[in-house]
C-alpha cells in the first residue's frame, strides 16, 4: 500500500506555476497553463454560476473567467495591479477548452520533487478535496497543488463550455 502512494507522489513531480489567493500559495501543473495575462476587461454574463466573473476576448477567442476566490469561498477583494488571469487548458465533454482563472498574483515556476509532495489531508466524507493533487513543501512553506481538471465539477465545466 505504501508503494502505491509513493508512485502516485512521484508521478506528481514536475514544474508548477505558483500563484497567490489571499495569503495562501497554490500551484498548477505548468503543462496545463496556456498563458498568463494581465487583467483585461471582463464582460459579465447573466445567469452564470456565482464564481464565473464573465468572459474575455483574447485575440478573437472568447474565454470564460473563473474567480478562484469565489470558487473556493474565500473573501473577495478589489482587483489590484497584481491581479491576473491564468489561461489553462481543461478537458471538457467536447474536448480541450481554455478557461481563465483569476488570481491575486503569479509567483514563480517551481520544479517540485516527488519526495516534497504529500497527499492532500483527509477531512472525512463531508469535505471534497479531490481537486487537490497534493501539498508541496518548498522553501520552508506549503503550496497547495491543484488538479485544475477537478476544480470545476463535470456539471460546472459543462456550464462553462456552453458559455463559449
Mean pLDDT: 85
Query: Largest sheet at a glance?
Result: 6 strands, mixed
What string, H for helix and E for strand, traces the elements in order?
Answer: HEEEEEHEEEEEEHH
Number of strands: 11
Spatial extent as radius of gyration: 16 Å
Shape: globular
Helix content range of the residues, please?
A: 10-25%
Distance between the termini: 43 Å
Strand arrangement within the widest β-sheet reads 8-1-2-11-10-9
Q: Low-confidence parts lasting 5 or more residues at pLDDT below 50?
A: 1-11
User: What structural class do the secondary elements suggest?
Assistant: alpha+beta
How many helices? The count is: 4
Beta-strand proportion: over 45%
What tags apply to this protein structure?
164 residues; globular; disordered N terminus; 6-stranded mixed β-sheet; 5-stranded mixed β-sheet; alpha+beta
Descriptive report:
By secondary structure, the protein is of the alpha+beta class. Helices cover 17% and strands 46% of the residues. The chain has four helices and eleven strands. The protein has helices at residues 2-11, 68-71, 148-151, 154-163; strands spanning 14-21, 24-29, 33-38, 52-58, 61-67, 84-92, 95-103, 105-112, 117-118, 132-138, 141-146. Strand 1 and strand 2 form a beta hairpin. The longest helix has 10 residues, at 2-11. The termini are far apart. Residues 1-11 have low confidence and may be disordered.
Amino acid at each position: 500500500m505504501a508503494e502505491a502512494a509513493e508512485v502516485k507522489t512521484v508521478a506528481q513531480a514536475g514544474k508548477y506555476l505558483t500563484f497567490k489567493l489571499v495569503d495562501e500559495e497554490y500551484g498548477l501543473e505548468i503543462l496545463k497553463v496556456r498563458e498568463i495575462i494581465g487583467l483585461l476587461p471582463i464582460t459579465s454574463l447573466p445567469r452564470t454560476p456565482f464564481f464565473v466573473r464573465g468572459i474575455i476576448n483574447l485575440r478573437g477567442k472568447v474565454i470564460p473567467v473563473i474567480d478562484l476566490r469565489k470558487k473556493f469561498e474565500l473573501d473577495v477583494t478589489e482587483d489590484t495591479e497584481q491581479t491576473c488571469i491564468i489561461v489553462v487548458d481543461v478537458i471538457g465533454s467536447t474536448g480541450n477548452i481554455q478557461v481563465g482563472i483569476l488570481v491575486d498574483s503569479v509567483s514563480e515556476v517551481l520544479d517540485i520533487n516527488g519526495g516534497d509532495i504529500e497527499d492532500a489531508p483527509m477531512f472525512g466524507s463531508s469535505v471534497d478535496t479531490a481537486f487537490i493533487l497534493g501539498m508541496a513543501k518548498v522553501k520552508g512553506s506549503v503550496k497547495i497543488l491543484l488538479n485544475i481538471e477537478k476544480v470545476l465539477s463535470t456539471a460546472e465545466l459543462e456550464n462553462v463550455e456552453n458559455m463559449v
